[in-house]
Design goal:
Layout: H1 31-49, H2 51-67, H3 75-81, H4 85-89, H5 95-98, H6 106-127, H7 129-156, H8 160-164, H9 173-184, H10 190-210, H11 214-233, H12 247-270, H13 279-282, H14 292-298, H15 306-316, H16 320-341, H17 345-365, H18 383-405, H19 416-443, H20 455-462, H21 484-509, H22 519-531, E1 547-550, E2 557-563, E3 566-569, H23 581-595, E4 598-605, H24 609-615, E5 618-628, H25 641-652, E6 656-660, H26 667-682, E7 705-710, E8 716-727, E9 730-741, H27 749-764, E10 768-773, H28 785-805, H29 807-814, E11 820-828, H30 834-845, H31 851-860
Parallel strand pairs: 3-4, 9-10
Antiparallel strand pairs: 1-2, 2-3, 4-11, 5-10, 5-11, 6-7, 7-8, 8-9
Helix pairs in contact: 2-6, 6-7, 6-9, 7-9, 7-11, 9-10, 9-11, 10-11, 10-12, 12-16, 12-18, 14-15, 16-17, 16-21, 17-18, 19-20, 19-21, 25-27
């Protein structure tokens, strides 16, 4: 990336001396002093621009220093300032406001100060000072007031949780912060509005489920209040419904959800809660470890006491293995979450399997299912215990269902062979460990355990060795190991199993893995592309979803994807000289015929028309590529008036062009690109298109270049991406792919970007600049009856998609640049297959099209 440089200065070292007799210039401030002054000025501007954030942060810090930053306010002051049912009944009407200004300890104070600056500052930047102040106070008051009302109602009806926490006094700044950022979400762009709402709500719910303190309830209610307040303050933003997400955004949201639900039990551990699935680990920090010999004597069936459950739990987690087996399923979910971010379908099924297992175990061992346990789980009086236990099964079950429903957004597929290898590894490991447990137990059946055992005891117990110990809290212990060998096997076979399952899954998430488009094929394709011999869209063959046919005779390749019985190529052959292409096309056609597919060469240059005529194939024009010759680039003349006006308008607005790559972007700029893309996708009534149309994920390729329009404040107004075309390892052309602008940006920003790209390519000696082709849009006509029939089908499809994607409008836009028009054709062997080809094209471009959307497309937009 080229950096802008300032005027030339003196070489580094000693400064140049003034000429003799010259007047002495005034003394300039030193660089450190100037840097410090600049930093202070920036801080001053931030403070002046965020008065509420500054005042709130300063107030929280001063109050903490005054009342005790290490342990928070002491009891009398805490009762007077904090929130709770007793405080409100005693007339402390101010408590819903004062309770969100104090912290409990030094660590919480540090976190609160950081979140106040970052989150409240972001909210103030989004919706202004007075709205931010209103949101902080109103959501805190509503959340705490409603929460106390729920507690009072619960106490009057004898509800167990309300009675248990009635005496607790809440001091929680996070309530106000969470309500404020949720309110501000209504003022954010589509991308961040969805992310803020989903992640904030999930975190709040997880705290309620796994911690369960009154402050957690207040915070959740404040978040819901913020959601409603945001809609009131900005009523034109839709609250109901779900605006469309791109593949990238669905992956981010689901990965975040899996991560939050996986870390949820840790909340219970850190807050000393006993409701989370990791709660037994908290007992490790207890000092009253029971004597092993007395555990079973005191814990007989039908005589299980609370102390007995405590002691049995300690005994079950006596050692590293039982602790790990409680953690490893959650670690498996974190590994799967990373795979979800990378679009791995394998990660979907791994997360589904783990969540489904946790849901089933909760239902069985907590007695939720009627047939799971003949003993009554709880008294009908304590219905809330049943509700809590049911939620422990419901949360992972809902997560599993969501992953299955949205699995289509995870398009990177593993090979069947690699999946079989993984399943075989996990199954054989499990069987082997079961056999080891039974064998060791049988060999030490008389001396290795607290009582003599037989094979039935071992078989009845072995599966519980693979289950997190938190599910076994109510299960009576029939025997415990006493010898070192029996103890090692008893406590660690489950740990070994989960470690193998996780480690075997790691290559699917972190490495290139064995995917249907193997890493070896991907590297080979890159080499062929750099050799050359392709067309302007050949680089699209590197995108996910393509398969490759390699021609041994010429050394070239054809990229294709099979949709039903149709094998659609991504452009023409590549990686071989042009003279070899005719033979490659014929051999690829035979390959498809041998495989039972209908070969269709899609978006290939019309220069192949004579070949297809000789083969007896039918052809039709499907698009027109628009090509500019950078070495002849000039914007003089009347025809260029519109482009010149756009360039001048952008320059007057202080917009500059940046030629860069995605990897070189700072985080703030990368986030802006995601926001722009997500807003574009969310506004469409149909899913994001694929095949020959790239999305946000395709920008990450290091070979792809970006041309950004950036204003003086660093705000990205528009973005274009450019795909390289090679010859003998050198880039000779660039093809336009991704092209999106920020809603509300100045008119002409895209013309400005394309003109700047052409100027840059002229300087770099590039031979051609392709503005690509608008799918299903062209100016050419056909006369043949068969062609006219297919033209009518594709014309109808083009007309249907025009209100959403604007392909015809895009072609008119590109014609502003006075390009060469190169017809692109589709060639197919059998006109009878036209219906299947039409369906294949729709499914290739819109793989996520639902039945409802297809019906709307067919009847509503024609």
């Amino acid at each position: 990336m080229e950096q802008a440089t300032g005027p030339e200065s003196a070489p580094e070292g000693q400064p140049s001396a003034p000429e003799p007799g010259a007047p002495v210039p005034p003394r300039q401030p030193s660089e450190p002093a100037a840097g410090l002054r600049g930093t202070l000025q920036r801080i001053g501007r931030l403070v002046a621009g965020h008065p509420f954030t500054t005042g709130l942060t300063a107030l929280i810090l001063v109050l903490a220093l005054a009342t005790g930053p290490i342990h928070g306010p002491h009891r009398p002051l805490r009762v007077w300032l904090g929130a709770g049912p007793d405080q409100l009944l005693d007339g402390h009407w101010w408590s819903p406001v004062t309770a969100v200004l104090f912290t409990d300890n030094l660590a919480e104070l540090i976190v609160v100060l950081v979140l106040s600056v970052v989150l409240v500052g972001a909210a103030e930047r989004l919706m202004g000072t007075w709205r931010t102040a209103l949101a902080f106070v109103a959501t805190s008051a509503i959340g705490i007031g409603a929460g106390i009302g729920i507690q009072l109602l619960g106490s009057q009806t004898g509800e167990m949780w309300s009675r248990n926490v009635h005496h607790l006094v809440a001091l929680d700044v996070f309530t106000g912060i969470a309500g404020t950022i949720m309110t501000a979400s209504a003022f954010a762009g589509t991308l961040w509005r969805r992310r803020i709402r989903v992640i904030t709500l999930l975190v709040a719910i997880m705290y309620v489920l796994y911690s369960g303190l009154p402050s957690d309830l207040y915070r959740l209610l404040a978040v819901l209040a913020g959601l409603g307040l945001g809609v009131l303050l900005r009523p034109h933003v839709r609250l109901a419904g779900w605006r469309r997400s791109s593949h990238h955004e669905v992956r981010v949201l689901l990965a975040s959800a899996v991560t939050i639900t996986a870390l949820g039990p840790v909340i219970g551990l850190l807050t000393q809660s006993r409701y989370g699935m990791l709660s037994p680990i908290g007992l490790l920090f207890s000092s009253d470890v029971p004597d092993r010999g007395s555990v079973l004597e005191r814990c007989q069936a039908f005589a299980v006491t609370r102390s007995c459950v405590h002691d049995l739990t300690l005994e079950r987690i006596n050692g590293l293995g039982p602790v790990l087996i409680s953690v490893l399923p959650l670690l498996a979910l974190l590994v799967a979450a990373y795979g979800l971010l990378r679009g791995r379908r394998f990660a979907v099924w791994l997360a589904v399997a783990v969540n489904a297992l946790l849901a089933v175990l909760s239902a069985l061992y907590f007695g939720i299912l009627p047939f799971a346990d003949p003993r009554p789980t709880v008294s009908p009086r304590y219905w809330e215990v049943t509700l809590i236990l049911a939620l422990s099964a419901l949360v992972p079950a809902v997560m599993a269902v969501l992953l299955v429903v949205y699995r289509r957004h995870f398009t990177v597929l593993a090979t069947a062979r690699s999946i079989r290898r993984y399943v075989l590894t996990v199954v054989l490991t499990g069987v082997g460990l079961i056999a080891l447990y039974v064998l060791v137990g049988w060999l030490q059946k008389d001396t290795g355990f607290t009582r003599p055992i037989d094979a039935s005891d071992l078989l009845n117990d072995v599966l519980e060795r693979f289950i997190p110990v938190s599910f076994l809290r109510r299960e009576p212990v029939q025997y415990l190991p006493t010898t070192p060998l029996a103890t090692i096997v008893y406590h660690n076979i489950g740990t070994v199993f989960w470690l193998v399952a996780i480690l075997a899954a790691v290559p699917f998430m972190f490495g290139r893995g064995a995917w249907r488009r193997s890493s070896g094929d991907a590297g080979r394709v890159r080499g062929l592309l750099e050799r050359g011999g392709g067309d302007a869209i050949s680089f699209m063959t590197t995108w996910p979803g393509n398969s490759y046919w390699f021609d041994s005779a010429s050394g070239g390749a054809v990229a294709y994807r099979v949709v039903g019985r149709v094998a659609l190529t991504t452009g023409a052959p590549f990686g071989a000289p042009q003279a070899e292409h005719d033979g490659m096309i014929e051999r690829f056609a035979r390959f498809c015929d041998d495989s039972g597919w209908i070969p269709v060469f899609y978006s290939v240059d019309a220069e192949y028309q004579p070949l297809f005529d000789r083969m007896g194939w039918s052809t039709m024009t499907v698009a027109e590529e628009t090509v500019i010759r950078p070495q002849q680039w000039a914007t003089t003349g009347k025809k260029w008036q519109d482009v010149r006006s756009s360039i001048n308008r952008a320059q007057r607005a202080g917009i500059r062009a940046e030629w860069t790559t995605f990897a070189a972007l700072p985080l703030s700029t990368a986030v802006q690109l995601s926001d722009i893309s997500e807003q574009w996708v969310a506004e469409k009534d149909l899913p994001e298109m694929g095949f020959t149309l790239g999305g946000l994920d395709e920008l990450h390729d290091p070979a792809v270049r970006l041309m950004l329009a950036v204003d003086e404040a660093g705000r990205v107004e528009g973005v274009t991406s450019w795909l390289p075309s090679y010859r003998d390892g050198h880039v000779v052309g660039w093809t336009l792919d991704f092209m999106r602008r920020r809603p509300g940006s100045i008119n002409g920003v895209m013309e400005f970007l394309i003109a700047e790209a052409a100027t840059r390519m002229k300087e770099d000696g590039i031979e051609f600049m392709s503005l690509s082709a608008a799918p299903l849009a062209h100016t050419a006509g056909t006369a043949d009856d068969a062609k006219s029939g297919m033209d009518r089908v594709l014309g109808y499809l083009s007309t249907s998609l025009e209100p959403v994607y604007g392909f015809r409008s895009l072609l008119k836009f590109k014609q502003k640049f006075q390009p060469e028009l190169h017809p692109l054709i589709m060639a197919y062997p059998d006109p009878v297959a036209l219906p299947a080809i039409g369906v294949g094209l729709v499914r290739a471009y819109l793989p996520d099209l639902s039945v409802r959307q297809a019906a709307a497309l067919a009847v509503g937009r024609g």
